[in-house]
Write a sequence for this structure.
């Protein structure tokens, strides 16, 4: 009697074919992309020398530039990020509620709310800033609105998903008891999604600090204005001061957000 010999294979023939097809398409896309961007080899050869020369121009940093132009712009950046985040929370909450199918079981309203959220996320914050600079003129107002409208899609999407994942038990109990919809939302949904909401808010504030740092490049206020001025004048020692300030603030914001989340949420 011949023993039944079986050979274990990790992937089926169909899975191996799909993997090979994926790798082939990925390599082909990479080759086409390299040809499309038209990389100039001459610029790559001396890139290390250019980097060394750039850092040499940045050092030593002009620390006197910080109190003259950077500090006030940094405070304005923090205000833009904070006010923009608060405004986005007020705008994103109702849209996120309308997007949740279990809270508002109307398909047309759900799709419209999701369209609003997708529209917000699909436009970059710099594009929003250009739009609001054209409407309201350069300054912090344009930057604040750009941050707010960019954040609506992020906050609303995650908040709506948190609502859809809420436990139905408390909701059904209050509904069966005849509680009105506001009471059902505040007593059944909100206690379940409140930690997620504050986590989303903190995370978005952290992101907005980074995004608001460059809005000044298009005239929307903040520390980006100081960066744009230094870049235009080719004062690389002042550029280094601005970049170091942005880096320090981003790291500090990350530490603050992490600490708050670990102690409160």
């Amino acid at each position: 009697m011949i023993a039944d010999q079986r050979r274990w294979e990790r992937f089926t023939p169909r899975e191996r074919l799909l993997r090979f097809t994926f790798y082939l398409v990925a390599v082909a896309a990479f080759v086409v992309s390299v040809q499309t961007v038209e990389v100039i080899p001459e610029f790559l050869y001396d890139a290390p020398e250019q980097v060394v020369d750039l850092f040499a121009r940045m050092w030593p940093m002009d620390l006197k530039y910080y109190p003259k132009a950077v500090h006030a712009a940094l405070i304005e950046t923090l205000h833009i990020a904070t006010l923009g985040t608060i405004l986005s929370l007020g705008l994103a909450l109702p849209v996120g509620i309308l997007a949740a199918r279990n809270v508002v079981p109307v398909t047309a309203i759900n799709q419209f709310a999701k369209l609003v959220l997708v529209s917000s996320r699909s436009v970059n914050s710099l594009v929003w800033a250009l739009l609001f600079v054209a409407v309201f003129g350069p300054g912090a107002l344009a930057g604040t609105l750009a941050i707010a409208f960019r954040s609506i899609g992020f906050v609303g999407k995650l908040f709506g998903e948190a609502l859809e994942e809420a436990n139905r038990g408390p909701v059904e109990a209050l509904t069966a008891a005849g509680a009105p919809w506001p009471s059902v939302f505040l007593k059944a949904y909100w206690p379940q999604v409140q930690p997620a909401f504050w986590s989303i808010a903190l995370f978005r504030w952290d992101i907005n600090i980074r995004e608001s740092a460059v809005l000044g490049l298009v005239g929307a206020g903040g520390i980006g204005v100081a960066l744009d001025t230094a870049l235009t004048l080719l004062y690389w020692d002042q550029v280094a001061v601005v970049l170091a300030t942005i880096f320090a603030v981003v790291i500090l914001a990350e530490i603050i957000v992490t600490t708050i989340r670990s102690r409160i949420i």
Notes: The chain has a mean pLDDT of 83. The CA atoms of residues 23 and 29 lie 10 Å apart. The chain has one domain: 65-263.
